[in-house]
Amino acid sequence: MEILGLTLPLLVLFVSFGFMVGVLFGFFGMGGSFLITPTLLILDYPASVAIGSGLAFYFGTSVIAVIKHYDVGQVDYKLGAVLFVVLSIGIELGSRLVFGLEALGIAELVTGIAYIVLLAGIGLLFLRRAYNLTDDDDDEADEDADDDIPPIGQKIQSYNVPPMISLTSGGRASLWTISGAGGGVGLISGLIGVGGGFIRMPAIHYLIGTPLTAAVGTSLFAGLFSGAFGTFTYGMSGSVDLAVVSMLLIGSALGAKIGSAATTMVEENDVIVYFGMMMLFASAGIALSELADWIGMGGLEMLSVLLLVGSSFFVALMILYQVAQTVSTDGSPTQTAPEGGD
Amino acid sequence: MLGIEGGVTGAFAVVGFILVQAVALYVAYGLLESVAKTIRSKQVD
C-alpha cells in the first residue's frame, strides 16, 4: 500500500525520524536537520533530491521556529536582512569553491574533512561547556558561563570600523564584522551543503555580540531566507520530494514542541554532554564513511550510518526519557520555554 | 516521488506549499497543546 507515493514503512520512518530531529531542534535550537540529506542518500534518493528535500525541510522548520520567535519578539530583523545578503554571497562563493575543487577532483575529500573538523570542534566545545558547568554549582555561575565570550570574540566585537549598525538589543556592530562573520559562515555552508544554523548562531552571538536569545531568533530569520532560496533553486529543477518533506515536517513540528517544553524539565548539563558526544559520533561516522569510500569497505559504510543516525536517536530518546521521568515523578504541568528552548 | 514539475512556477509552488504547511502545522499543534493544557488543568482541579 502506498500513500503519497511512499510505502507505509517509509511513511512511518519519515514521520518518526522527523519527530526525533524535531526533539533535538526544539531542545537545542540547532542540530538534526544536517542528518536529513545523508539519510536520504542512504535510502538511495538521488543526490539532487536528497539535497533539495533536505533544504526544503530546513526551510519548513525555520518557518515554524521564526513564527515562534516572532511571538516572543526575539528577532533582530535589520541584522537578519544584512546577514541574509552576506550569507547568500558566502554560500554562492562556497558553491563555486566546490565546483573548483570538483575540477581538481578533491571536492569530496575537502568537504568531508571540513564536516569532520566542524562537527568534532562543536562537539568538543559542548563537552567543555558541560565540564565548566559541572565546576560551577550555583545558578549564578551557570549564567556567567553562558555569557562567557572568548577573548577572540571580545576582540572582534571591539572593532568599530564604520559603517556601524544599531542592533535591536541596544548595541552596535560594524558592518565589516557582520559581513566577515556572515560571509564566512555562508562560505562554510556552501562548501559543506548544510543550512549552517549550528555555526551561524554561535557566530552571531560570539562575533557580532547579539545576546543569545536574540542570536537564535535572528539566526533562524536569516536562515529562513537561505532555506527559501535553496528550496526555490532546487524546486526549479523539480528536485524536492514533497511527500518526504511533508512527513518529516509533521513529525518534526510535534517533536519541536516536546523538545522545547523539555528545556524546563531536563537537567541541561546532562543533555549538553549527550549533544557533544552526538556531534563527536557524527564526526566519527562521516570519517568512517570517507574511509569506506577510500578503501572500498561496505561494512564501514553501515557502521558510519549507525553512528550518524543512531547517536542522534539516542540523544533524542534520552531527552524524552528524562521528560517522561520528570512528569511521572513531579506530575507538574508542562510549560513551553519562552525562548523556544534555545 | 511526489514532486512538482520544475520551472519558476513550480519552484514558487513548492516554496508556497511548504510555507503553508509549516504555518498550518504550527497552528494545529498550538491548538492541540492548548486543548491538552485545558484538559490537564481540569484534571488537577
Automatic annotation (TrEMBL), chain A:
Q: Which residues cross the membrane?
A: 12-36, 48-67, 79-99, 105-127, 173-198, 204-228, 240-259, 271-291, 303-324
According to the UniProt entry, the coiled-coil residues are none
Query: Which GO cellular component terms, listed alphabetically, does the Swiss-Prot or TrEMBL entry include?
Result: plasma membrane
Q: How does the protein associate with the membrane?
A: Multi-pass membrane protein
Q: Which InterPro entries match?
A: TM_pro_TauE-like (IPR002781)
Locations listed in the record: Cell membrane; Membrane
Q: Name one Pfam family in it.
A: TauE
Q: What is its main location?
A: membrane
Q: Does the keyword Transit peptide apply?
A: no
Q: Does the keyword DNA-binding apply?
A: no
Q: Which UniProt keywords apply?
A: Cell membrane, Membrane, Transmembrane, Transmembrane helix
| Similarity remark | Belongs to the 4-toluene sulfonate uptake permease (TSUP) (TC 2.A.102) family.
Q: What is the name attached to this protein's record?
A: Probable membrane transporter protein
- Origin organism is Natronorubrum sulfidifaciens JCM 14089
Higher taxonomy: Archaea, Methanobacteriati, Methanobacteriota, Stenosarchaea group, Halobacteria
Automatic annotation (TrEMBL), chain B:
Q: Which Pfam families match?
A: DUF7512
Bilayer-crossing regions: 12-32
Keyword set, alphabetical order:
Membrane, Transmembrane, Transmembrane helix
* Protein's UniProt name: Uncharacterized protein
Q: Which InterPro entries match?
A: DUF7512 (IPR055934)
Native organism: Natronorubrum sulfidifaciens JCM 14089
